[in-house]
Amino acid sequence: MAFEIMSGSQAAAVAVQRTGIDLVVAYPITPQTAIVETLANFDARGELGGEFVSVESEYAALACCYGAAAAGARVFTATASHGLAYMHEVIHWCSGARVPVVMANVNRTIGAPWCLDPDQGDSLSQRDTGWMQIYCSGAQEVLDTVMQAYLLSEELLLPCMVVFDGFYISHTYEAVDVPDEDSARAFIGPPSFEAQVKPGSPANLHGLTTGDNQVKLIRNRHEAMLRAPDLFKTINSKFAETFGRSYGVIDSVIPPGAKTVILAAGATAETVRWSLPKLDNTGFIQLRMFRPFPREEICSVLETHGVEKVVVIDRNCSTGMGGIFAQELRSAVYDLNNPPAVQDIILAGGIDLTFEMLESIIKEDKYQGQVEQIWGVDLK
Amino acid sequence: MRIEEMKRESEMLYAGHNACPGCGAALSVRFLTRALGSNIALVLTASCWSIIAGMPPLTALKCPILHCPFPSAGSVGSGVRRGLDAKGKHDTTVVVLAGDGGTFDIGLQALSGAAQRNEDYIFVCYDNEAYMNTGMQTSSATPFGARTNTAPYPLFKEGQKKDIMQIMAAHSIPYAATATVAFPEDLENKLKKAQEIKGFRFIHILSPCPPGWGTESGDTIHLSRLAVSTGFFPLYEIINGVSWKMTCMPEGKRVPLKEYLMGQRRFKQMEDIRIDALQEEVDHDWEMLMEKIGSSQPLK
User: Which among B39, B78, B85 is the nearest to A200, CB-wise?
Assistant: First the structure.
């Protein structure tokens, strides 16, 4: 165990190296490049422990991961924004084929026009693809989550996307507690899943089927994903025993008597966490796991504390509806006896969240009561 | 080779597969598996073969088949090769099977990427010269003058068929070859030769499609032979992108192209002026090919 200064992107790459993989498939895109460059440097020093291949597109990168994982290999790729959008067909295919692929996505706005700021619309556009999605709020969390994602993914045979904000996390250097290679590999272990492509064994893998069969496969996949929160808890309690840290599918800080809670995912969660002591009587939920959506865990916290209002930080916007995390939360709390009011703070375009913005949301009269949607630009 | 001389026990295509009678694509794969043996893994992209392979858990082939999205064949092949290598299965031959759409059109980027990286597998394109699985729509492999359901009379396919072999040669891959089911020995020899070579190998098989081309199912072999004897589809191989060699030279003078076009519904209403234009194109391509072969130094 040793602290090193590194960026979020480097932390993702170090996690992959520590995990021990068979194949890294790389294609560059800002702000993800430092991940694949760091992995290339491991390869150049002979320390990667697997193969590194540069391909001609993000589509190819994920397709190559699909083929390798189907043959039983442990794989990694990383992308952002347009790269993730370009992968879309293969993203669906990987979950349908039940291959355990782990991919990092560094949030960046999707154009037009070109924009590098960390809107979460790229990963949230992939909400319904059958991938698990975990949002990280700092470099340490990125490192730990990438490692844990392999255990989740290989156990459930579902692909997992580890998501963090461009620049605020990808390019920000922090002190990160880096596990040594031996203890990391002992913790993760070798790939535990069975290869689908087995030479000598005839199998017609993922060929044409009927809707009647497909519905069973979709249901199996759905039920497998619903196991993720419990498995995540188990993985984290073991992780805590070995490395002294752990994470929940959500993390919450609710001061006694707080009736307003701010919910955030990714880098903005860190801003909220640090602002909390200066925001009177306000609680905080970090949404870490987004798919599956931790409905039970969130509702339990809200009910236990009698929360009356949730302010949701959405660095994204589903045009014609609003922030996506807010929509998901409204749906999750709908059946509660006393569902809290949900107020949506839209930071689409990847705009920054400041303490001053939070302060005015919580304290200014005009933002109290039935104000369902606030555009972050109006708070500046 | 005579049909009765073929040893069926080494074939990996089961009877009862879903191909149409006279399907060149089914025959191509039958010969392919005879040549390559049982230790193969097949990557299969969207094409007629997505149907021919059958509905899981049924299967038409005695080997693993991994289906993949339409544009991804070249990349998934790379992944399967590397995944099998990671598992120590170096002796399995990986074969990627795609139609002309999955090779010439939507799959070209992945094909080019894999060829440039010299990925260690065999890419087989069975070319029936249009999107046949979706019902005969134009692809960039459709010959000039042909009618398709997206170029119905009085329209016709404009522009030449894309020269995929020159594209592959330009990637300097270790081995590329053309083949047809009318010359099964030539086809099998090329696959066996390809199997012995490491790196990216490309086999382009002309595969007549009776319902798409509008021909009798019994004409597939005859038409494939005419494609060769007219020079429309010459049989040759290219080593390292530079050494070009004919493997089946038509005997005597090339047969006029019209004989090949006649009797195919897709060329039925083709005007003489366009037949002449296509003949000129074939003559020109033939001369270019002969020049390449003539100037090629046999490699050691």
Answer: B39
Using CB atoms, which residue from A64, A205, A208 is nearest to B64? A205
pTM over 0.90: yes
CA-based nearest distance A143→chain B, Å: 24
The mean of the pLDDT values for chain A is: 97
Residue of chain B with shortest Cα separation from A49: B86
**Host H or E run for residue B204:** strand B201-206
The H or E element spanning position A177 is strand A173-178
Report the candidate in A346, A266, A315 with the shortest Cα–Cα distance to residue A121.
Answer: A315
Residue B60: list chain A partners with CB under 8 A: 204
- Contact, B115 vs B171, CB < 8 A? yes
How many domains does chain A fold into? 2
Clarify whether residues A94 and A209 are in a common domain. Answer: yes
Distance (Å) from the alpha carbon of A58 to chain B's nearest alpha carbon:
10
Give the gap in angstroms from C-alpha A48 to the nearest C-alpha of chain B.
14
At B298, is the pLDDT very low, low, confident or very high (cuts 50, 70, 90)? low
**Residue in B64, B82, B84 closest to A202 by CB:** B64
- Sorted by where each starts, the structural domains of chain B and their CATH numbers stand as 19-295 (3.40.50.970)
Q: Same domain, yes or no, for A43 and A189?
A: yes
Of A23, A55, A66, nearest to B86 by CB-CB distance is A23
Structure confidence at residue B250 as a pLDDT band (50, 70, 90): confident
What distance lies between CA A251 and its chain's CA centroid?
Answer: 14
On the CB side of B150, CA atoms within 13 Å amount to 12
If you measure CA to CA, which chain B residue comes closest to A87? B72
Which residues on B lie below 8 Å from A51 (Cβ)? 82, 85-86
- Is A199 in contact with B110 (Cβ distance < 8 A)? no
The domain of A264 spans 250-379
Nearest Cα residue in chain B from A209: B55
Same domain, A70 and A176: yes
- B159 phi/psi in degrees, rounded to 5: 85, 155
Q: Can you give the CATH number for the domain in which A214 is found?
A: 3.40.50.970
Q: Are residues A309 and A173 in the same domain?
A: no
Confidence of residue B46 (pLDDT cuts 50, 70, 90): very high
Query: How big is the A-B interface in CB pairs under 8 Å?
Result: 174
Q: What is the residue whose two structure tokens read 């190998």?
A: B201
Kindly report the CATH number assigned to the domain that includes residue A331.
3.40.50.920
Which stretches of A60-126 are assigned E, i.e. beta strand?
75-79, 102-107
Mutate to test the interface with A, among B40, B42, B47, B68 (most CBs of A within 10 A): B68
What's the whole-number mean pLDDT along residues B257-279? 96
pLDDT band at residue B1 under the 50/70/90 scheme = low
Could you tell me the two tokens for B281? 């194109």
Q: For residues A113-138, b (16+ Cβ closer than 10 Å) or e, as one string?
A: eeeebbbbbbbbbbeebbbbbbbbbb
A207 and B56 in contact by Cβ < 8 A?
yes
